[in-house]
Amino acid sequence: MEYKQRTVTCGQLRKSDDGKPVVLNGWVHRDRNHGGIHFINLRDRYGITQVVVGENAPKDVVDVADQLHMEYCIAVEGIVHARPDSMVNPDMPTGEIEVEVVGMQILSACEPVPFLIDEDSDAKEETRLRYRYLDLRSTNMQKRIKLRHDFVRAIREFLSERDFYEIETPTLIRSTPEGARDFLVPSRIYPGKFYALPQSPQLLKQILMVSGFDKYFQIARCYRDEDARGDRQLEFTQLDMEMSFVKRDDVLLVMEQLFGHVFKKTMDVQLPEHFTRLSWHDAMNTYGVDKPDLRYDLPLVDVDDLARESSFATFKSVLETGGCVKAVKAPASTSVAFSRKYISELEDAAKIYGAKGLAWIKVGAAGALEGGVSKFFGGLEASLVERMGAKEGDMILFVADQWKKTCNSLGAVRIKLAKDLALIDPKAFAFSWIIDFPLFEFNEDRGHWEAAHHMFSMPQAQYLDTLEDDPGSVKGDLYDLVLNGYEVASGSIRIHDVELQKRIFRICNIPDAEAEERFGFLLNAFRYGPPPHGGIAPGIDRMVMIMAGQTSIKEVIAFPKNTAAISPMDDSPSYVDQNQLDDLHLIIKQPDKNA
Ligand code: ASP
Q1: 499: CATH
Q2: Considering 132, 251, 515, 529, which has the largest number of Cβ atoms within 10 A of its Cβ?
Q3: The model's pTM
Q4: pLDDT tens, 63-97?
Q5: Nearest 5°: CA angle at 311, between 309 and 317?
């Protein structure tokens, strides 16, 4: 089809273009017909321009304009006119001009759209994903995809500048499950054998260090065959990084500088030079989670001593059995009344993490304690109010249980309070490092120790001699980067010694023979002069989601799966032909697609 190709985009024209002949290509965003005059908002990726089919327009143009519907793709030939001052639209970058149409061609028609293309679509998620090509036309999806592009570009710029090489690693690899289930790809050539899609390029990036590449990164797609749960995708993207001859603080510094650069470049946000560091224990103890949202404070406060002096038998018995009592302050609020109903909502949040209940006290005039368990704190009013930094109208909430349960439960209350009482600055970016994590956790179901992060992380030096004696007490050279309450990166200094690596495998219930079978290629590489090394892998989807002020990663992924792991647009996963199965030597047991 012959058509007039654009000479300008829909976001480009300004007053200084007055009088210019132009051609625009784009989509009919809106078409208002006022007494025979068409005011058409023409849209492309760059913006929206008002084009006008006026009273004096040629007849063939009017005929075409009369056929237009929303989202038709058209070519417009016209003359730019500066609008009179009174007609300038200050909300549109192109609002100083309009284009008088002298020629118009429909490039392609559009069926009635299932939802209006606007800043955001108000359709159900399922509909948005089914018609993702339309959903992606919305201004805000376009902005977010651009932000993602800018983000990745700024990363590439910074790391290339710092001597990192971008190296691709294969997506068909040996199956070495890292915690989640692997996606498997059957080999046609070798019946019964499978490749796996990488859960991350972990072992390959370590091997690249053995090969002397020194500084590596990759914008890496990772695949984990997990049940649909929360805001997860089966495939996601990490900025995968690894460096040789580094210690923990070198890795943390590079990341601080990287994100300092990226945030400045993409959002003009100045981050602090260094991020707050918290040990895993302090994060749990003070905020009740290992990924605390530090946009607000609301610390969990230890009140064991006051609880012991009180006359509240429940608290005392928890203390006697080795538990603890912690409290958090709900600051007085003008929008939320601390009613029984609200307190029971807070209690529900605590119970999700196993708390048996949530005790409370309100602070009245002159520091008097009122309601709830206040009667048990006679004589301790001033000490409690001072400890909590409370004032009139505040409420104090308590959980008493074993340490971890107390932290987790009251941590959930803290998060709910911050949301309900609007204590969060939505524009803030609060980064923190969580360090000194336990290296192992005990898997009750399997009855053995497992790596808390992954099995290739280095134990801290002081535990090296006694790893096997008490795995639960071993701290690893591990670090997580947390942003606004989300874990956005995990990493560690790695083991580079075959014997130590085998000891870790053994603690994780992997005997030497099995280790050789599953991880022999890594152990072999470690027999050839591996350098000390470490790395980290920030999640790109999640970081861009937070930067874009969103709460679901689907908002920053062009073609995500829905929560049931299905892509409604192309209906994957799908059945395949019998001959494809035959090629792959596969027989499907269940389900029968006709059943
Ligand atoms: N490969 C790890 C992960 O995907 C990150 C790392 O340790 O670098 O969680």
Answers
A1: 3.30.930.10
A2: 251
A3: 0.94
A4: 999 999 999 999 999 999 999 999 999 999 999 99
A5: 85
